[in-house]
């Protein structure tokens, strides 16, 4: 690979949770995922590399592409399938073509974690104008988590939903940082926060942002 190439994110989701899958369905322009599917998010630089990598993944396995995004700095794509084996195989083939290993991805960096209790009605209205998931209700507790590279936020959100009873308000997974908003009771949000942080910290990789 060229020296400028970066495998920024290699993130496998073993089982997409119901709210996460539903949210992805509202923003994807590719094949629609459903709850229970396995998924793989890969983010690279330079961004144009995603076209070649998606081509490799879909031609060699039964995995379907849900996203293929190129923005100013990075490119990201997502593939999914009801078969975990197909998604894992697609990932292994992509890594093999790149002559890279999973451990050469960038390790996630948690940039910000905020827990806001008793959300004010006016702030709830502002947040709901920009959300693509559930609506936040005044009085709920809200979790805002930001990480880099951006595509790791999908893994964090999915693991948070596994670990607690929450509402998924919004996810932004493209650009320099990934962000998610969750809401629920204070105890459930604290549990979701811990699940998300533990998930991100469990991933190995090289240091870099």
From TrEMBL:
Annotated protein name in UniProt: BMC circularly permuted domain-containing protein
GO cellular component term of the entry, any: bacterial microcompartment
Record PROSITE patterns: BMC_CP (PS51931)
Subcellular localization, as worded in the UniProt entry: Bacterial microcompartment
Domain BMC circularly permuted: 109-209
Domain of life: Bacteria
Keywords: Bacterial microcompartment
The organism of origin for this protein: uncultured spirochete
């Amino acid at each position: 690979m060229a020296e400028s190439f970066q495998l920024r994110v290699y993130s496998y989701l073993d089982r997409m949770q119901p709210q996460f899958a539903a949210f992805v369905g509202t923003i994807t322009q590719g094949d629609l995922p459903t709850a229970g599917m396995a998924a793989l998010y890969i983010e690279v630089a330079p961004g144009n590399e995603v076209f070649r990598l998606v081509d490799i993944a879909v031609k060699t396995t039964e995995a379907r592409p849900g996203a293929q995004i190129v923005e100013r700095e990075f490119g990201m794509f997502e593939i999914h399938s009801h078969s975990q084996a197909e998604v894992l195989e697609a990932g292994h083939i992509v890594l093999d073509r790149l002559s890279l290993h999973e451990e050469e991805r960038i390790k996630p960096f948690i940039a910000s974690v905020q827990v806001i209790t008793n959300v004010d009605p006016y702030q709830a209205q502002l947040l709901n104008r920009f959300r693509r998931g559930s609506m936040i209700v005044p009085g709920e507790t809200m979790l805002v988590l930001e990480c880099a590279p951006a595509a790791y936020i999908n893994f964090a959100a999915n693991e948070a939903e596994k670990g607690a009873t929450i509402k998924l308000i919004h996810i932004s997974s493209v650009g320099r940082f990934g962000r998610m908003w969750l809401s629920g009771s204070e105890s459930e949000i604290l549990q979701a926060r811990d699940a998300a942080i533990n998930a991100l910290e469990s991933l190995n990789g090289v240091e870099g942002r």
